[in-house]
Structures are given as structure tokens and as C-alpha cells.
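Support request from a user on the community tier.

User writes: "When I paste my C-alpha cells into the form, the page sometimes reloads and wipes my input. The last time it worked, I copied everything first. Here is what I submitted, just in case something in the input itself triggers the reload:"
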């Protein structure tokens, strides 16, 4: 059995599959949070300050979703389904600071027409911009280890 620092780095197609899975889960969560927000705010979607609050709520909910999973086992449900784990470069769990850096840089990676993700196609270690910036990596777990 290889150590956690020797596990293969995650290819882009596998990342995208996990992102699709997690996006569906996050969308359901955001629907619930938005419904609660509208019920509390009285449906005041016409106000500009409500847009700011709603946007902040969406971003914070998305960060909480990913950070909780990343900090508690290194796997979202989509990552678990595709046997992917997030870890620091030494093979251990990531810190809250790394989770925040990774989340924010992943947003920038997407806003730059997904160039931050596509970078993994030319990077020799298959790292994305957010992997590099947060000093984290996605690795593929062997089948026997993923079942534990």
C-alpha cells in the first residue's frame, strides 16, 4: 500500500465528475437556504440590500458546504463517489486557512473562463491554480481504501 504522499494526482475529468455531483447537492442546499431567507425577509427581492445579503448568504453557504467536508475527512460526497481526497502536500488534512484559500481561488479559476482548472492539463503534477495557491492536492484513492 502506498503512503498518502505517493497516491496518484487526480485527473481533470475525475474532478469535473465530482464537481457535477457536488453541484447538484449544493444546488439543493442553496434552494433550501434561499427559501428560508425569503421567508424571513418577507420576499423583499426588489431591494438592492437584499441582493447583497442574498449573494453573501449564497457564497457563505457554498463555502460552509465545501469547507465542512474538506476539514472533516477531505472528501465531499461527490469526491467520495469518485474516490478523490483533498489533502495538504504532505498527505495530511488541510487547515481552515487552506480551505478558504482553495475556495476563493477556485472561484477565480472559474471566473477566468475555467483556465485555473484547465491548467491541470499542462501541469506536470496535474495541479490547478487553487491546488497551487492553497498548497493542497487532490489524490485518487485505491478501491480498497475508498471503502473504509
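"...and here is what came back when it finally went through:"
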Amino acid at each position: 500500500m502506498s503512503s498518502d504522499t505517493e497516491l496518484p494526482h487526480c485527473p481533470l475529468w475525475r474532478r469535473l465528475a465530482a464537481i457535477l455531483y457536488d453541484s447538484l447537492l449544493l444546488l439543493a442546499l442553496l434552494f433550501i437556504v434561499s427559501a428560508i431567507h425569503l421567508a424571513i425577509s418577507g420576499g423583499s427581492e426588489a431591494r438592492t440590500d437584499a441582493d447583497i445579503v442574498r449573494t453573501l448568504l449564497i457564497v457563505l453557504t457554498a463555502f460552509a458546504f465545501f469547507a465542512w467536508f474538506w476539514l472533516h475527512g477531505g472528501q465531499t460526497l461527490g469526491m467520495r463517489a469518485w474516490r478523490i481526497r483533498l489533502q495538504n502536500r504532505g498527505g495530511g488534512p488541510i487547515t481552515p486557512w487552506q480551505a478558504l484559500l482553495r475556495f476563493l481561488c477556485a472561484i477565480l479559476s472559474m471566473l477566468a473562463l475555467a483556465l485555473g482548472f484547465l491548467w491541470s492539463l499542462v501541469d506536470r503534477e496535474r495541479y490547478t491554480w487553487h491546488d497551487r495557491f492553497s498548497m493542497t492536492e487532490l489524490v485518487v484513492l485505491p478501491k480498497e481504501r475508498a471503502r473504509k
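Agent notes: The reload is a front-end session timeout and is unrelated to the input. Residues 6 and 91 are 8 Å apart (CA to CA). The radius of gyration is 17 Å. Escalated to web team.
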